[in-house]
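Here is an idea for our session: we take a single protein and study its fold together. Start from the sequence, derive the backbone structure tokens from it, and show both lines together. Once you have written the record down, we can walk along the chain together:
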Amino acid sequence: MSIECSQFFPQKIPEFFVEPPMLPSVNVTGEQRSGQSEEHRSSPQLRAHTIGSDAAVSRSRRNAPSVPISSANTTETSRLDRVSDPKLEIKKEATSPNGLYGVTYSLSAPGSGLSNITFPMSIDEGLQRKSSKDAGIYYAMQFGVNNEEGKPLARGYIGMQPREDGKALIVFSGSGSHFNAPQGRSEFDGGKGASNSTLVDFKFGNKYNLTVELDSEDPHKLKGFVQDVTDPDNLGPKQHVKDIYVDQKVALSGSESGFVEHYGSKISRSSQIAPTSGGFFAPFTRDDKGDVKVGEIKSNGLYGRYRNSMVGKQLVIKEAGKGKEVSFSFQGVGYEKKI
């Protein structure tokens, strides 16, 4: 599916996406990402063994589900394997980053677009990057930016990268020449764009809201926030993740995609993909009156170079036929934890 802002996103559209192409994450800590393969830019897929237990997949459901479970809700579980017998896969070339799992979302939006979107997510298990030489796991949601006429202008994303010592790096970026980041870096994956990152307290299994919103006094400014919402009766502080600026007045698109990605050190075999589990929830927005409108989220399964050599399972909760939560767990075939 072609888009008007394709000049800012040269990647091919992942074959499973019905929305615009998936945007890869930035390798923060100041380094540029490299070795991004053609397969990484254009594919989808997985099945679980020990990490794919029902307990692992459903853990995020116990952390303040986005909607109450009612008789109108349905729960669907499925394996993510792309092939009937996934096997260890070894590539000739080591690459980074590598896309693993994808989702798409949609929200009802006025003609010009939305003023804010909140993306709830949880990470139950995953790599904790310790240094620039290590690998990490990245959970992120993309957002589209429309111009004043409501036409697509560019894209960005906001996401979480678990680090050691109970911390996570929140990355908030925009791709293309329309963006700049006075408090961050004036580049995006080695190209034009802007990127900010902020280190925050983090705990596996907790639920976090990542919010992108237009500044009420400056329609050129996009503000990023993160908040621990695990306990609805005792919410964590809403922390600011710095700002990115656009060179014209904008609004947020009502539909885009999200992903889980292995980044950092390059890999050449499926056995290097460590177990990860977590969940994405349907995003929501608040209108001018403060009323909350919840959207829909859909799983696109595993994708990328190792789509046929990962194993896992997922759980999808739907309300009136629309996805409200997607929980999953997966790992590469042949993975063995180092002792």
Remarks:
- The mean pLDDT is 82.
